[in-house]
């Protein structure tokens, strides 16, 4: 048994599970019927159903604790998953060079020879472990994604050029990482350059609370040259070390859920979305709701444009089959059946439209007051 989910709540509240799921959507919580809910969500939902329902849920609070205990015992369903890493830093400090170098030197074996990256995320195998890299989505996109509640990065690699030092976008990146509460690994890049001064960079970064271990802090610093492939494996070692400390886990047994990395409209294929699977396993054919869109996973490709049938946690995939183009940072959830997925998707689209209308009419009112 999982923790308390929409189905359990449905029984307590004498409603249908579909209604509970729908209601949760209205409250901005995107789950499928089997996904366990946290205490806050359950309380909000109870409040939404009014006192009568609230009492019924309260009766069950004791049981709730039991459910949460059960979930603790359920850790056996949770298995380690690869870390998801975002590379950030000031323009021209070497992010793309680093990502390319990592990708080309640690391609998953069976892909060797055929690497044309199709999507903005990829996985590498290093020391028999997988690491997922997200192509730096640009800081603005990153903060917008976070604003929409997407927390897709486990670790931020901050690239700082040793000949240039801390620059405005370096500080921005630090702030983003701090806001997202992801640990930062500093990659001091371009150490091959004549004007490189890694110690100066380190000194500058201490002002932002990034202090290396040999200076008494706890931030991992690696001096690299992305261009000349120096210490890149050491950086990967440090990423795996950091990931190990974080004990990243997910349950591959449940239906898939995760976030949109990017999405676009393709002339021939229709809406195309790059998704990061964060929980569960996704399969071709799955009914799915993605943000305010819905559909069925028609095709699923890996980052090399190859067709795959299933995707486990931390895997980036590109899918088609949606009725519309979702937004980066949107959450997605796989549903049991297409009918519920459609109902949920349509409900969400309707709500988004209403919100938009309310927002624009509000602006109009404001304007009206301004002119009075
Ligand atoms: P991005 O804007 O952060 O993605 O930076 P790029 O990866 O595009 O790199 C900007 C420039 O710096 C390019 O001309 C790279 O060849 C160069 N570059 C990147 N890494 C290194 C390095 O380790 N050493 C040297 N000398 N140049 C580098
Ligand atoms: Mg770049």
From TrEMBL:
Domain Tr-type G, first and last residues per copy: 80-249
Family: Belongs to the TRAFAC class translation factor GTPase superfamily. Classic translation factor GTPase family. IF-2 subfamily.
G-domain as annotated region, ranges: 83-231
Protein known as: Translation initiation factor IF-2
Location relative to the cell: Cytoplasm
Span of the signal peptide: none
Chain positions recorded as GTP binding sites: 89-96, 135-139, 189-192
Role according to the record: One of the essential components for the initiation of protein synthesis. Protects formylmethionyl-tRNA from spontaneous hydrolysis and promotes its binding to the 30S ribosomal subunits. Also involved in the hydrolysis of GTP during the formation of the 70S ribosomal complex.
Shown segment, full-protein numbering: 193 to 564 of 771
């Amino acid at each position: 048994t999982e923790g308390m989910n929409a189905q359990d709540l449905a029984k307590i509240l004498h409603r249908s599970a579909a209604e509970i799921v729908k209601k949760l959507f209205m409250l901005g919580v995107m789950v499928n019927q089997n996904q366990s809910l946290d205490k806050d969500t359950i309380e909000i939902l109870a409040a939404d159903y009014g006192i009568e329902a609230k009492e019924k849920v309260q009766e069950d609070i004791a049981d709730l604790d039991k459910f949460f205990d059960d979930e603790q015992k359920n850790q056996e369903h949770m298995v380690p998953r690869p870390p998801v890493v975002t590379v950030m830093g000031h323009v021209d400090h070497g992010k793309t060079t680093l990502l390319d170098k990592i990708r080309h030197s640690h391609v998953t074996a069976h892909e060797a020879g055929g690497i044309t990256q199709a999507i903005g995320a990829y996985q590498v195998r290093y020391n028999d472990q997988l690491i997922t890299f997200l192509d730096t989505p640009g800081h603005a996109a990153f903060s917008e994604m976070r604003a929409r509640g997407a927390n897709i990065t486990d670790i931020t690699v901050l690239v700082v050029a040793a000949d240039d030092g801390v620059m405005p976008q370096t500080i921005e990146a630090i702030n983003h990482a701090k806001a997202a509460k992801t640990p930062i690994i500093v990659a001091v890049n371009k150490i091959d350059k004549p004007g490189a001064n890694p110690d100066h960079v380190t000194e500058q970064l201490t002002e932002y609370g990034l202090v290396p271990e040999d200076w008494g802090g706890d931030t991992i610093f690696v001096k690299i040259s992305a261009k000349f492939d120096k210490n890149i494996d050491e950086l990967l070692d440090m990423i795996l070390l950091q990931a190990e400390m974080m004990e990243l886990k997910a349950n591959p047994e449940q239906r898939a859920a995760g976030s949109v990395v990017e999405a676009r409209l393709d002339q021939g294929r229709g809406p195309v979305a790059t998704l990061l699977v964060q929980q569960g396993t996704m399969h071709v054919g799955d009914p799915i709701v993605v943000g305010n869109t819905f559909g069925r996973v028609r095709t699923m490709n890996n980052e090399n444009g190859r067709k795959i049938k299933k995707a486990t946690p931390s895997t980036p995939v590109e899918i088609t089959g949606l009725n519309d183009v979702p937004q980066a940072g949107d959450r997605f959830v796989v549903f049991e059946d297409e009918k519920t997925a459609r109902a949920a998707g349509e409900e969400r689209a309707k709500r988004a439209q209403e919100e938009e209308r309310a927002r624009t009419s509000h602006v109009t009112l404001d304007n009206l007051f301004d002119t009075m």
